[in-house]
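Sharing in case it's useful to others searching the archive later.

Someone asked me privately for the predicted structure of Sugar phosphate isomerase/epimerase, so I'm posting the question and my answer publicly. Question first, with the sequence:
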Amino acid sequence: MEGFSRRNFIAGAGAAAAAACAAKPLFAMVPKSPFKISVISDEISPDFDHACSVISKDFGLQWVEIRSMWGKGLHDLSDDQLAEAQKILAKYNLGVTDMASPLFKVGWPGAPQSKFGSKHDFGSNDNFKQQDDLLTKYIALAKRFKTDKIRCFDFWRLDDVKPYRAAIDNKLQETAEVCGKHGVLLVLENEMECNTASGPEAARALAAVPSRHFGLNWDPGNAVMLGELDAFPKGWDLLPKHRILHCHVKNAIKGPDGKIVWSPVDKGFIDWAAQFRALKNSGYRGAVSLETHWHGAPTHEESTRISWAGMKKELQDSGTL
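And my answer, the predicted structure tokens:
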């Protein structure tokens, strides 16, 4: 090393470091946050590879929530398709936040027909008897995709759920215990078309289903769509924060005709900067997952890009990004 000075060494090391940084793909530079920031992939495209490319390369994220791909619910994919999905996740270095399953998005047996019961949501029209098999599939899928959370609902919304509420709660309790035996958590989403939709209804459900394997997928946008315009902060204030296990991010606003319609994340009744701060201050460190739903741009992908820009701004304004 004759003639190789300390100054030469430092300069050379600096150049090497700069070259290494330049060689890193852009999507390796992920944002720092107390949350697992994710996007539901099919809100971008049914093409799973393309959706993951956008999430990783363009959005700079490390997490994805999976619900469907290639036009099919996860439980309807072949083993070869599931293997391909795993390869795609590895290709883009993405982890999976949860299984966004349609479990229990069906009618409750013996109850009157719900006005929402004719809708199809990647398997939700399967009848009640098939739900146990669906749960078995999603427990296996959760293990395959290395996540410990399975999203569920609590059946199509009834005009009067009171005669059936205790039985529904018992079913959720039993299902949570089954999940617990397999090392996974059952996460109930408050959904405007199901029997738990608002903040108060979510708080009631958590009190009625005490399993330590059961928690909430908090979605204040869904509560707003039901008509609970003060879902944050009023509905949020009712919730036991330690039982919030997942969070969906979207927004809604009053349209020209007075009806509530979906909107980009940074426009609407939910003050997401304040909600993100409240989540952080409560000790929440789980996923905040973009579920666009607003389709005001020409394509789903463009709409999701606009919503992600709004969500990113709200995260930054909240000090959580």
